[in-house]
Amino acid sequence: MQVSACFPSERWVVVWFVTVFDVGVDISPLVEKIDDPNMANDKDLLQVVRLLDDACREAGFFYVKGHGIAEPLMKEVRDVTHKFFQLPYEEKLKIKMTPQNGYRGYQRLGENITNGKPDMQEAIDKDHARLIGYPVSTDILEEHRTDTGCGAHTDYGLLTLVNQDDDICALEVKNQSGEWIYAKPIPGTFVCNIGDMLKVWSNGIYQPTLHRVVNNSPRYRVSVAFFYESNFDAAIEPVEFCRERTGGVAKYEKVVYGEHLIKKVLNNFIK
Predict the structure, then answer these.
(1) Mind listing the domains of the chain with CATH numbers?
(2) Which residue has better confidence, 239 or 268?
(3) What are the boundaries of the signal sequence (predicted)?
(4) Considering the entire predicted model, what is its pTM?
């Protein structure tokens, strides 16, 4: 099977193992009836849930549309993000991230660390959102030209929604055969991936997928990620429903989310 660097069509697919796996889910029926007390009896909603379950089981990475957020608004958020990162460095430092402000604010290029290497990105962290800018390689010092915009990792929490530039391929996902493949931007969709806590909660039914960002484009790239996470003091353990479907035994020990989060975050900053 021949696959181009960026998929040439609008098909909602990624190459997964040796087959093409459909990972696009229209969640509009779910959004429309999310407050309906009788939603569990709706066959159309059940089909959406099954598609989401399949995507989480088979890939851990998929696209969602029909989410209710207008495409122009998604673009406006990216445009504002671009404008911020175009500001002079001294201006961006006015909201610099520090331990005193809970590691919220601006993070300079190379300050974030993944797997012992600086990530070639700058970012703003605010509550559950992270606005990220990836410079082109010619704007990076020679010794960091081979570094990734964000090294291979899994996300900390339950799931992540990513609003990425429509015309730049940079987000890569590691498939079951160990190959890195692009998650091509599809206008109007969010890329959704599951995180570490959903793995624990589901007793391993859902596995987070390694992903990274490599911006080989000649243009600056941004993405805006929303991290859906547990409460800081929440004790996460495999739920009974999932234990029953995986042999009746918990495969993961109970973990306090805040402890898990701090441990991973502290490894991602220059000491």
Answers:
(1) 63-266 (2.60.120.330)
(2) 239
(3) none
(4) 0.85
What is the percent of the chain with per-residue pLDDT over 70, rounded to a whole number?
A: 84
Q: What is the mean pLDDT of residues 100-106?
A: 86
Strand order in the sheet with 190-194: 24-26, 61-65, 190-194, 159-164, 221-228, 129-134, 122-126, 105-107
pLDDT in tens, 130-186: 999 999 865 544 444 445 678 888 999 999 999 999 989 899 999 888 889 889 899
**DSSP state letters, the chain:** ----SS-SS---EEEETTEEEE-EEE-HHHHHTTT-TTGGG-HHHHHHHHHHHHHHHHTSEEEEE-SS--HHHHHHHHHHHHHHHTS-HHHHGGGB--GGGTS-EEE-TT-BEETTEE-S-EEEEETTEEEEEE--GGGS-GGGTTS-SEEEE--SSSEEEEEE-TT---EEEE-TTS-EEE----TT-EEEEE-HHHHHHTTTSS----EEE---SSS-EEEEEEEE---TT-EE---HHHHHTTTSS-SS--EEHHHHHHHHHHTTB--
